[in-house]
Each structure stands twice: as structure tokens, then as C-alpha cells.
Specification:
Elements: E1 2-6, H1 17-36, E2 41-44, H2 56-70, E3 75-78, H3 92-98, E4 103-104, E5 108-111, E6 114-117, E7 120-121, E8 128-132, H4 141-145, H5 149-154, E9 159-163, E10 191-194, E11 201-203, E12 209-211, H6 220-227, E13 233-240, E14 242-249, E15 255-261, H7 267-280, E16 287-296, H8 306-315, E17 320-324, E18 328-330, H9 343-355, H10 363-367, H11 369-380, H12 390-405, H13 408-412
Parallel strand pairs: 1-2, 2-3, 3-4, 8-9, 9-10, 10-12, 15-16, 16-17, 16-18
Antiparallel strand pairs: 1-13, 5-6, 7-8, 11-12, 13-14
Helix pairs in contact: 1-2, 7-8, 9-11, 11-12
Length: 413
Amino acid sequence: MKFAHMADLHLGATSDPALRKLEMETLERALDRSVEEGADFFIIAGDIYHVNIPDLAVVRDSVRVFRKFVETGRKIYVVYGSHDFSPNAASIVDILDEAGVFIRVGKPSSVNGMLRPGVVKDERTGAILTGISGRRASLEKKAFEGLDREYLSSLEGFKIFVFHTGLDEVRKENERYEGIASSDLPKGFDYYAGGHIHRRIEFTRGMKAFYPGPLFTGWGADMEATVRGEKRGFYIVEADGGVKARFVELTAFKGIYEELDAKGLSATVANEKLKALAQKLDVKDKVAVVKVFGELASGKTSEVDFASFRDSLMGKGAIYLHLNRNQLRAREIAAVTVSGEETSEIEEKVLKELAGTVRASTPQLSANTVRLAKDLLAQLRVPKKEGETEADYDARVSGAAKEVLGIKKLVEG
Ligand SMILES: [Mn+2]
């Protein structure tokens, strides 16, 4: 028996047409390759799509690729990832499960107050599959606590556990996720097909728990790692007495990585440096990742002409430019002059100007700076209600602010 294991596809994460095309081609290559390698079935350990209801063009194109595989008589087994899951809406994964494109394993049921994840037997090979889906903010940790382990250990055959949760033991210093210990995984499975951590991990202490990492790219950080040489692909796992997993490389694009330290430069000099950089770089048919950081000595971050930089790289045949300028700052927050018809328009313009001057510590914050600031402002200007005590008012405003920032659970435990 042979099977393929991938995770963290994040289909539709990019809206760039060239990258979307490349993303779909990579997916197709992966599925074709797994058939060539003799895989009997395919596992996707969550984060199949980047959002729970993705762009329908992405769904259409990917379903065409998935169906081609399924029509060979092979199955695709999945769990939700944290990105596929929605607490209050159906996910596209549910629809594709209903349509027979995917088979979602580990659908939860409760027996005597314990969680029994649904078990599926692969008809082609007799392999037994079950697992636990990922959820937002790693709420699936609770599922591991209430898991009916006795039931799972009573299952017989070649057993695979599919999950979308990080292991605490493999966390690197800069990685932040709510993980579980490997001892939290149910015992006695032949293979643990992991997802969620965006790099390749082979955990072999007393078990085989593997993470293939993203096939294509979910975040800018993935793209940066790829162009800096990290190999992307998936596992072909062979069960022949023992269990052997082999990583199949399928790196989707060539790339280059460059940095520009703008510390102490004026915006004008920074522009000259960018111009020179654009002239120097060989970007033809490559994805370029360029990080510009540091504190400008003078001028605003908005005076750095990234648009021309992008144009010249694209003009030289680059597939795509990913600009990382989260850590580019201006020395002073200069007075910003903007005009507009309405208060909200003026606010938005001011916030946009200032967005480049703040350093955000997480991708969620840096991607949505303006929206978060606007929402926060809207909450903070809510006046005290008639008869409301100071304490109640405080609690209401700080509660609303935590909600906006998405840190309610984090702060209140
Ligand atoms: Mn992911």
C-alpha cells in the first residue's frame, strides 16, 4: 500500500493571476505525480483552501484537478484546517465532501460524553483513517482532551490519524501556535498525517508524525522561505511491513530574495537604491521577494516609490513581486495633510498615511492595520450611556476593543 500526504495548500491565498495559475499547475502536478508513484489514495491534512468560502473560480479549477484524481478510482481524505473551518457557516470542504470529491474523516460524534471521531476504511487498501480537524485558534485542543482513546485503540488494521495541530515538541522559537504534546495523539496508529505547521517536519520519537508543510504558499513568509531555498512538496508513504515516508520535491517556482536596509536613508536616496536594485536583479521567470526595512532619516514611507520598483521588476519578466515593508518606518510621524468630503474618508486617508509608520508584531495586524484602527476608533468613540457607571463603561469599551482586535479569548482565557 502506498499513499500520498500533503497539507496546507491554502488554495486561493493569492489573488495574483500568474500565481493562481502556478498554484493550480502545482496542485495538478502533485496529484499526477502521486498516481505515477502508485499512491492508492491521497490525504490532505487541512488548510485546503485559504478561507472557508473561497473564490468560486478557485473552487472550479481545483475541483477539476481533484476530480481527475478521484476518477482514477482513488479517494482524497481530508480534515478541516484552521482556515477551512467556520463555526457558523458551511465550509466549501463540506460541500465537496457531500459531492464525493473529498471524504472528510473524523466527523465527530459523542458517545458517553467522549469524542469518537468518525472512522473510514479505504476500500482499495483496507487502511483505516480517522482524525481531528483543525479549528480557529486551535480550539481542537479540547477535542484531544475528550478523545475516546480506548475505542481508537480497539480499531484493527493499518491505521492513519489525520490532524491539523502543531506539536509542542517541534516548535521553533519564532513559531507561535497552540500546540499539543505528541503524547496527546491517540496511541497505536501506524502514521500520523499532520498539517498546520508551515514547514516540513519528520517527528519520529515513538511514532511517525509527519508534516509536509505548504505545497505552494499560504503566507508571504512561506514565499520568502521558498525563494530562500526551502523545498516544497509532499510525502509518499509506503506501508510494507514498516512504514517508509519519502518526500517528493515539487518546488513551484524559482525565486530570488533581496533586502534593502533603509536605516538612515532619506526617502530620495532609498528610491535611488531601489532603482539600482531593480536594474541589477535577474528576475526573469522568477518570484522576487524583497524586504525593505529600517528607519528613514527623513521623508515619509509613502514617498518611497514601490510602484515604480514593482513596474520595473515586472517589466523584466518577474512572475511576481512580494514586497515586505512591514518594518520600514519614518523617523517622525510628520503632520499629515489630507482632504476629503466626509469624516470617515479623511480618517481613512490619515490612517493609511500613518500605517507605514507603525510596526505590527503579527501578520493579522500588519495586513489589516487601517481596518483595525478604524474599527477600534469607532468603538472608542462610543459615549457613556445615561446612568452607566464608570466601571461598566470601562468594561464595555475594553470588551469591544478586545473583540475588534480579535484577542478576547487570548486575554480572557
Ligand atoms: Mn496552514
